[in-house]
C-alpha cells in the first residue's frame, strides 16, 4: 500500500509542478496526469519488483510527463496533425 501512495504522490507532484509552470494549466494537468499514470502503469506491469523501489515511481512520473509533452508538441507542430487538435498557429 505504501508503494501505491508513493506513486500517487509522485503523479500529483509532477503534474502540479507542470501545471504551475505552464501557460495553459488545464492542458498541463491533462498531459501531466495522463503521461504519469500511463508510465506508472507500464512500469508496474513490466517490472513490479523495480517499481517498488522508492524512486522508481518518481522517475516514471517524470519521464511519462516529458514523453506526453513531447508527443503533444510534435502533434501541434505537424501541420496536418495540428488541424486535428485545433492548433492556433
* Number of DSSP helical runs: 5
pLDDT under 50 segments (min length 5)? Answer: none
Distance between the termini: 45 Å
Find the structural class using helix and strand composition: mainly alpha
How much beta, percentage-wise?
A: under 5%
- Biggest sheet architecture: none
Provide the gyration radius in Å: 14 Å
> What's the helix-strand series?
HHHHH
The share of residues in helices is over 70%
Count of extended strands: 0
- What form results from the Cα inertia axes? elongated
Average pLDDT level: 89
Structure description:
- The chain is built from five helices and no strands.
- The protein has helices spanning 2-21, 25-46, 48-51, 56-77, 79-85.
- The relative contact order is 0.15.
- The radius of gyration is 14 Å and the shape is elongated.
- It is an all-alpha fold and 89 residues long.
- It is 84% helix and 0% strand.
- α1 runs antiparallel to α2 (25-46), α1 runs parallel beside α4 and α2 crosses α4.
Topology:
Layout: H1 2-21, H2 25-46, H3 48-51, H4 56-77, H5 79-85
Helix pairs in contact: 1-2, 1-4, 2-4
How do you describe this structure in short?
The protein is built from five helices and no strands. The chain has helices at residues 2-21, 25-46, 48-51, 56-77, 79-85. Helix 1 (2-21) runs antiparallel to helix 2 (25-46) and helix 2 crosses helix 4.
